[in-house]
Amino acid sequence: MSKVFVTDHPLIQHKLSYIRDKNTGTKDFRDLVEEVAMLMAYEITRDLSLSEQTIETPVCEATVKKIAGKKLGIIPILRAGLGMVDGVLRLIPAAKVGHIGLYRDPETLEPVEYYCKLPTDVEERELIVIDPMLATGGSAVAAIQFLKDRGAQNIKLMCLIAAPEGIEKVQKHHDDVDIYVAAVDEKLNKKGYIVPGLGDAGDRLFGTK
Ligand code: PRP
Ligand code: URA
Is 175 a catalytic residue? Predict the structure, then answer.
């Protein structure tokens, strides 16, 4: 069974409160999503392996630790996942970015694919799928399956807010994928929105309706 990590750092929880607030406007919403994504990237990279190297400080020779050449990939689920990309890249600037375009059919709530462009060596990379919302789990399950169909073997999922239903679905279909979230909310409503959630993440990020 995959693990679920809830990153309850005070800064993340504080910023998430403003993200949830319906009175937070587009610019602040966008900035806050980026900041929380950056803080969560710090947590999700906690287990990266290090290798030792010798350098010269201005004082003497020293053995220091650097990330051990791991190839990372960030995979935002369009559209709303785009809002998290720059925050993650601030901490891991050398990561490659692949895009998976999915939207949720408002009637069936099933994900519909419209775009997919991935790094060519996806099978060698440690991938982080990013999307602010894990609601029914349909979009995340489909995106992870695209990656696995193309050879990906090492995948983590990072979302701001998850519903219990979405977590359960990802664990059922992809029990090798650990899930990192800032909050697990109460439930989904009849329209498949997370309660209390933050509303429609894509619309709030891009100022659409
Ligand atoms: C939202 C969100 C997820 C999906 C979650 O995207 O960003 O991708 O819904 O719902 P699910 O877990 O039930 O699949 P949406 O389909 O609204 O598209 P958008 O990002 O283009 O707004
Ligand atoms: N997608 C969103 O943007 N918000 C939700 O609450 C559920 C799906």
Answer: no
The Å distance, Cα 65 to ligand 2 centre, comes to 40
Nearest CA to ligand 1 atom 21: 79
Report how far ligand 1's centroid is from the alpha carbon of 105 (Å).
9
pLDDT digits (tens, 9 = 90+) for 120-157: 999 999 999 999 999 999 999 999 999 999 999 999 99
8 A C-beta contact, residue 152 and residue 123: yes
31, burial (CB in 10 Å: exposed 0-12, middle 13-18, buried 19+): middle
Read off the tokens for 67: 């990330």
Binding site for uracil, by residue number, is 194, 199-201
Look-up: residue for tokens 């929105």?
A: 193
Choose one of 105, 141, 181, 198 to mutate for the ligand 2 pocket test, by most ligand atoms within 8 angstroms of C-beta: 198
Residue 184, token pair as written in the block: 């697990």
ipTM of the complex: 0.98
pTM of the prediction?
Answer: 0.95
Each residue of 144-190: pLDDT tens digit? Answer: 999 999 999 999 999 999 999 999 999 999 999 999 999 999 999 99
Quick one: CA dihedral 128, 131, 137, 141, positive or negative? negative
Domains and CATH numbers, the chain: 4-206 (3.40.50.2020)
